[in-house]
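Reading a protein record of the kind used here takes only a little practice. Think of the row as the fold of the chain written in a discrete alphabet. A record is reproduced here so that you can trace the correspondence yourselves:
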Amino acid sequence: METTTVKDHKKGAFLERFSNADALVNQLPKLQEEAKIALEQIELPNRRTESWKYTRVNKIIKQEWHAGDSSIDIDKSLFLNWNASRIVLVNGLYRDDLSNIMAEDGLSVSSMKSALAQQRDLIHSHCGSLSAHKEDLFEAHNLVSAEDGFCLLVGKNALLKESVLVENYISGNDVAAINRNLIILEKGAQLNMIVANYSDENEVIFSNDLSEVFVGENAQFTCDLVQNHLGQEQFAINTIWANQERNSRFTLSTSTLKGNWVRNNVNVRVSGENCETNLFGTYQLRGKQHVDNHTMIDHKVPHCESNEHYKGILYDQSTGVFNGKVFVRQDAQKTNAFQQNANIVMSDEAHMNSKPELEIYADDVKCSHGSTTGQFDEEAVFYLMARGISEQNSRELLVKAFIGEVLEKIHHPEVKALFGEEE
């Protein structure tokens, strides 16, 4: 009982720091009540919590977080020469003055706060309908704490000519940035995106970013997610929930350039027949960096295909986690699902925890999954060195070759260039 009381006190103190009279959920009373009940009932994640077994949250819970200044000037970008639509969030809030939305038929972009204020049935009915705020503490925390985010709609049969860039900046010390986003592609729509999450060096930050993505019938959604958290005391939770209708395609490539403590939750519900779902990821971890990729693809109907491939390289004392789940429901006959996680551990002190999972209830399917974690192939290094290539260059070439299969899946050349990959 004493242990439970201590845990409840820690959780209560953590949640109290995020009490927000301007939270988006105030406009969504049903969701507000659900989230409050969940926050009371769900315990803090610990070593006995299976989904958080290898990722500790103690430092997040103990820190004295506060809201950051959303009006600050931002002079950083990995995409300085971007000439298409740009959405900018600063410390969790939408910045209209920094954003630049190009006029394209079918494209509508606004802050999440203003989208909900318009009382449109489409927005209110979709917001919160996918996320697991009843079961997950940090998703419930996002729902009751987020004050803003962005809302993006692509109308029926709209094929956007240009990609949309989302830049999510976090800056300040002991700053927490909580934002919630909504993306809706109507029937026949097509959208390509880059989402870039940044934070400044030598600053202590916490972000809890959640996006719900609805991909309508015959629609196509492609997104390259880039994470570049430079500091050594920075904690980032990035959650994506997606729903696919029939004949749609959803593709997400996640690239973690730098991240002290990163948790990526990607969940896709395949609700319509003849869908294609693609999840790709790469991470190169150094120092004591920790990256945890949790994925879930839920095949609910027949005749669908999913491909999932994550690759990582771990140096020094870094740690990685991959937990991928693929559900094939009883009605999801003729499903074709592939899942693979491969890692190279470059140091005796680096650790990788990999757990690919298949849960199949249908009998006419083609599903496979696998995981490999090993050390560098020293014979390959020796082979290259014997042909006049230095040891350092030999290792760099082999690293590039190892992750190249996943980097090829990145859609935008601007993102590939960050890895030295040119078109």
About this structure: The chain has a mean pLDDT of 92. The radius of gyration is 21 Å. The chain is about 20% helix and 40% strand.
